[in-house]
Write a structure and sequence with these properties.
By secondary structure, the protein is α/β, with parallel strands linked by helices. The chain has a single domain (3-210), classed as Rossmann fold. It has seven helices and five strands. The chain has helices at 12-23, 40-54, 66-70, 99-114, 136-149, 167-176, 199-210, and strands at 3-7, 27-34, 59-63, 118-120, 157-159. The protein has a five-stranded parallel sheet with strand order 3-2-1-4-5, with helices on both faces. Helix 6 crosses helix 7 (199-210). The longest helix is centred in the middle third of the chain and has 16 residues, at 99-114. The N and C termini lie far apart (43 Å).
């Protein structure tokens, strides 16, 4: 069976991408990163629950403590407040410098080891928080770099099934694929109940509202 390494944060987007990959006949190798993000414990819990739901046995959890040392993001530096006043214009302080570039580089190493032919990442360009490493052009450049930096016989395509979707379309797609959205976690700052006011919560709630569906997770 063909294999795909799926970067699975435990959020709605990456989980939906994983279910799409499974529907396309891929054996999933799940890859999760603990990078000292504020909701690291809750995201890891979501990752494990989603892997159980998908029946994924081959799981990698990679520890990346250096993100906290670099800082410069409200997700990894507790001295920077997570914005709660609405989705910001431009690149917000929740952007983690070059996070997806680092994630994809590690995922490529795992894919080469596992003999996988695809990397799957749930980046969203059109309706995200404005992160530069979610752009399709960046992903295409990373695919080319991975091709140049791996063995000649290694052929890996990066699949981004959600990149051009709006958040409400992702919610609808998740419903179509039977994604257990109650297991997912999106909040940037809380681990018990979602805050409902950070950028990620606002985008998620807006997506459910526009899709005319109810979000199954709890908000405070």
């Amino acid at each position: 069976m063909k294999k795909a390494v799926v970067i699975l944060s435990g959020g709605m987007d990456s989980t939906t991408a994983a279910y799409i990959a499974r529907s396309e006949g891929y054996e999933i190798v799940a890859l999760h990163f603990d990078y000292r993000q504020r909701t690291q414990r809750r995201e890891r819990e979501a990752f494990e629950a989603i892997c159980d739901a998908l029946g994924v046995a081959n799981r990698y959890v990679i520890d990346l403590p250096f993100f906290a040392q670099i800082g410069a993001s409200a997700l990894t530096d507790t001295s920077i407040d997570v914005p709660t006043g609405g989705v910001e214009e431009g690149i917000p302080v929740t952007y983690v410098p070059f996070r997806n570039g680092i994630f994809l580089s590690i995922a490529a190493a795992v894919a080469e080891k596992e003999g996988a032919e695809a990397l799957v990442i749930g980046v969203v360009e059109e309706d995200s928080s404005g992160y530069p490493d979610c752009r399709e052009a960046f992903i295409e450049a990373m695919e080319r770099a991975i091709d140049l930096g791996t063995k000649e016989e290694t052929k890996i395509v990066i699949k981004t099934p959600l990149v051009h979707l709006k958040k409400e379309d992702i919610v609808k797609t998740a419903a179509e694929y039977g994604v257990p959205l109650e297991l997912t976690w999106s909040c940037y700052q809380d681990e018990e109940e979602a805050c409902g006011v950070c950028d990620s919560c606002r985008l998620r709630l807006k997506g459910f509202e526009k899709a005319s569906l109810e979000d199954p997770i709890r908000y405070r």
